[in-house]
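Hey,
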Amino acid sequence: MKNLVNIYQQKFTYHPYYQKLFKQLTQIEKKVFVFVKNQSDKELDKEIYQIGFSNLEDLIQKVKELKLENSYFNTFEEHSIVLTNKLKQFFNQPATHYYQAFENKDFQREKLLEYDKSITVNYQIIEDLKKFKLEIDFPLVIKPIRWAQSRWVKIIKSKAELEQYLTEYQKILERVWESWYKNESFLLEEFIDGSAWSVDYFVDENWNFTLTKPAFLEFGIDIKLDDFCNISRVISKEKENELDLDKLKEFLEKNIKALWIKNTFVHHEFKFTNKQQFKTIEINWRIGWFRLDMYDKCYNINLLEIPFQKQPNWYLENPLQTNYAIWALYPKKEGIFKKINDKIFNQIKKLPSLESIKIINSKIGQKIWPAKNWYSRVWFVRLNNPDFQQFQKDYEFVKKNYENLLILN
């Protein structure tokens, strides 16, 4: 593999993890190219170049002109995953065959169930909100197919709750992009119990994959909020060895082959049910910056470097360095964000495990909504402590006070 080519349809963000990767590559005489749609050409750094392009045909032509056909084509931007896979296919590189599954929830479910009915949940699609036959038993989970980040994902326990949900959804169109969502279809899924987890991995052209250790997930519903949003992600001494890794590997291999995933990163969220079964919640390509931080600090790993390793391993053996958690704070109801609860906030600032707090101050004085309505994160809290007992104590303090942290008018 000669060089690295990153594809973007929006503005490129020069993140520290890119810098670390780019520095490593240029030291071994590999060049880095960043293609950004509708941007001007410029040199970002020594051996790092930004190239503008207008469309797929223009992108292909510039790749040819620069003789980058044998480069590794990659993206970390949501809007560029289809474009990047088309580029790989044009130059006869290994690519994910069903790349549409990264964007389309129902297509993903369809292909997984075709391959093995045991690896995900049953579902149905609602295309006409006024006329449909319910095929999934209650309780069920409903989610708009094209929305993301837990927007309007909800557990429905009865027909009355389903009707109320659909009525409220119509109302939200009055204050968002109605032209985009007015013909939205919905995914109905059977609700499954158990614990939720995520892993990130890179799959090569031979279906070998290099896997992170699992992170434990908690959602709003886990602290009795009427919201399905992911509120915390945890790697800890307690959780690290809770899952059977051989069975997890077998489960992930089935998902990879079901979608013909090749030559790409994958973020995979799943449940481990009370019946000791793995069930896919969602598969996408995103490698978020918070997760990069988590794996770096817990295992001294930069995931971005994985495609350039000589020998892929399905499992990274680096020992756990610390216990780590990332909390995202969402409001439990709709209202005007007045302030943070000073008493609780000051107590959190004194926690021995506290690494950082980031408050999105621009939202103060503005109307905010729960994640299920419009995804309004208000702040992030990171906990980091090698001492598990202290870490767990501090984690439980944040969890206990979560729903009282925000003061709304």
